[in-house]
Amino acid sequence: MGDNTTNTEEDSDVFDGFKFRIVALGEAGVGKTSLIRRYTENSFDPEYKQTIGTTFSSKDVELVYEGGHKRRVRLVCWDLGGQSTYRELRRQFMKGASGAIIVYDVTRPETFMAMNTWFSSFREVCPDTAVVICANKVDLEEERMVPVEPGTMLRDWFQAEYYETSAKTGGAVEEVFSKLAHKIMEKVRGEGVGPKM
User: pLDDT by residue (tens digit) across 168-180?
Assistant: First the structure.
């Protein structure tokens, strides 16, 4: 019962830090839901369940800066269904996002080929927002069809961070969200927005 109380408190508006909305984008089945679940719940479900529309999870983190300064941040991670039928719905949820994680599956080249479309559609709505690219499912080494080099080309082209991730093993998942949170906070601090205490 105590766990439920904690969850209710975390989901309430009684939070004294920054709240950042992050959207996960990419083709259906690339592992967006799994990455978010690994980050927010530290769990992995090997059975694929299609995301219908949108879902979200949140996690509170503490960012530490030079001189030991700390900022409490709540990352609200929106998981947007990758099917084309949700295109307009996704646009609505992209508006006002603080950052995006754009994901492809290294075992399915067609998901890599779609990355420019995802990046462009996000940039139309959020032209100056931080983006991180995830080459997901790197644990499936035998099935990998998209090598590292095309991913680093995307990184340079999109001017975005690039990570090789595995939602299954947790490889680099924490780093992805942490890096994105820091990039968002740098932008907030650069714009002179003071801390919410």
Answer: 999 999 999 999 9
Q: Is the dihedral of CA 130, 36, 27, 87 positive or negative?
A: negative
Q: In the chain, how many domains are there?
A: 1
**Residues with Cβ < 8 Å from 139, sequence gap 6 or more?**
166, 168, 169, 171
Look-up: residue for tokens 């408190």? 9
Q: Which of 21, 185, 20, 31 is nearest to 102 (CA)?
A: 31
Type and span of the H or E element at 6: helix 2-11
- What's the DSSP call for residue 169? T
Partner residues linked to 58 by β-bridges:
76
Q: Which amino acid is at 170?
A: G
- Residue 19 located in a structural domain: yes
CB half-sphere exposure, 93, CA atoms < 13 A: 22
pTM: 0.85
Is 3 part of any domain? no
β-pair type (130-136, 161-164): parallel
